[in-house]
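Following up on my earlier message about zinc ion. Here are the inputs again, as you asked, copied directly from the submission form:
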Amino acid sequence: MKLPVDIKDFAYITSRKLPNEQGEKSGAVFMWRRKGEEEFNYKLKCPHCGEEQESSVVFKKRPYRVKCSNCDKSIMVEKLGKK
Ligand SMILES: [Zn+2]
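Thanks, got it. Here's what our run produced:
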């Protein structure tokens, strides 16, 4: 997946593969938050159903979870280590 804008504008950014229930990395998520904004934007390929989607969400607390709009499964997005 491609970066939508210049990386210096981000307060948070992560890109990672997502395992399904069998532990196969069949999905992926790319998530970012711009500086000064509360909302996280994400692109997701659901590891469970393969549906690709794009949305935004405000997280209240960790761990961050997004929900697939197709199969309704909750997907945890773990934070990457400090860059
Ligand atoms: Zn799904």
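One observation from looking it over: The pocket of zinc ion is lined by residues 46, 48-49, 51, 68, 70-71, 73 (CB under 6 Å). Hope that helps, and feel free to reply on this thread.
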